[in-house]
Structures are given as structure tokens and as C-alpha cells.
Amino acid sequence: MMDRQNEHKLTGQPDFGWDMPDKPFLTIGEVADILQVSSRTVYNLIYKGTLRACRITYHITLITKEDFFLMIKETTYCKRSVSIFAKQGKKTKKKMNGERQGKGQTALIRQEGKKGTNGSPTKRRLIPAANYKQSVRDTFTDRESVGGDLYTMAEICQKFNYTYGRFYNLRMRYSIPCIKANSTKCFPKAEVDRAMAQEAERLGNNLSEHWYSCFDIMRLFGLGKTQVRRFALTHGVRTKRIHGNRLYYLKADWDAARKEAERKSASTKAKREE
């Protein structure tokens, strides 16, 4: 004990009760042993500038005792600062709470508005759009504004052989008004019949007279779907696409190509010779 006190008086360095090596410098491992921390923690102190060190080579880093004691003397305890991520988390939480309150107030205002309009319903005016891909809301109207008989959606699909999706496109194209009767959607007969007539004229009234469908050819000539398409592509049969995905084949081209193929076919030629 007396020797340690005498050493402290001679060197002028404080006595912390550690077993300091008898060298003027320390290595990273020795500093870690003295502080009872890992070597990575010592390196972090050096990177932050808290502890001064001298890097001799890639594998040799030395710390003088004076720098070690200077770090202990000048480094004071301070309260841990809040990280940037924690601050951002608090801001995000406050923002989410504010948005929830705003949505709750908006929903409350909408409910109050619905209650106020139940007693006095307002008439919706039909606004036909030039572009048939208009909003469905624009086609809703009142029963009083549409006179005459009505079709239901099921009646239209059954009578005209339409699907719901196909009639939806027709309804948007020709701005057919819609009347809501409880949970059933109804459409004026006059408007629907007029739209169907215009659509038939647009697609061609004499479609079945001059064109084969793929199923017609399959039924008449006993071919498969792939054979029909391959024959038409090979012989240059003109086609027409209807309703987006239905392919029709011109009868004149198909019959001429079929006769030409039968004339050149070896199997049909042998049958004729027999």
C-alpha cells in the first residue's frame, strides 16, 4: 500500500486500485481488462474520440497511460440522449392518433348528414357522359323521372342472352338510367330496347349471314378449336372480333379455302378417283 502511494506521488497519476501494467502504454486488450468491457467497446470509445490512441500498424494499437487517465478525468456522466428513431416513432404515433381522431369526426359528420336527409330525399338528375366509361352513380335516377315499364337485370340477361358484365358495359355506353327498387335494380324498357337495337346495328345486323363463329365451324365440319384457328391462319381467312373476345370467320373466305384444300388434298383426290 505504501509503495502504491509513493508511486502515485512520484508519477502524479491517480490510484484507482487497478493492477496497471508497468509500461508507459497500454494495448486494447489491457484497457478492456482494466475497464472489464469488451475490445469492441474500447474501439467504440476510440472512434467517438473519447479515448486517444495511436495506431502503429494494422494489428498494433497503443494507448498511453496519460491518455487513459485523461479520459477518466475529463469524461463526465451525462443523461442518455433520445435516439433519432425514438423521436421519429413518437412523431409517427402522434400523427396516427391525429388521423384516427379526424376519421372519427368525419364518420360522425356523415352519420349526422344521413339522418338529416332521410326526411327530405332529393332527386338525382341523370347526367349522360360522352365517354361511356362513366361512373355508375351518374346513371341512378328516380322512378318518377322515368315513365313506362321496367326490366330487371335478370330479365334483361335472360331475354337478350347477356351477362351482368356485358350489360354493365352496354349500360355505360348508352347511359341507360337505373332505378333502385329496394335491393333490385330496374331499367326502363324503352331505353334498353333502343340501346339493344343500336348495339345490334353497331355490331352488324347480318352477322350470322356472312360470318361463321368458331363453334359453327366446329359443329359443321367436325374440327377442333385449334384446327379452326390454324386453318384460318394458314389460308388467310378474314376474321372479325366481336364483344372483345369472340372471333368470327368470313363465310366466303372459309368456303373458298375449304374447297381449295379439298381439291389439293391427296385423300379427297383418291376418293374422287374411286
From TrEMBL:
Pfam annotation, one family = HTH_17
Name all Helix-turn-helix domain ranges: 25-70
Q: Where is this region: Disordered?
A: 90-124
In its UniProt entry, what is this protein called? Helix-turn-helix domain-containing protein
UniProt organism field: Bacteroides fragilis
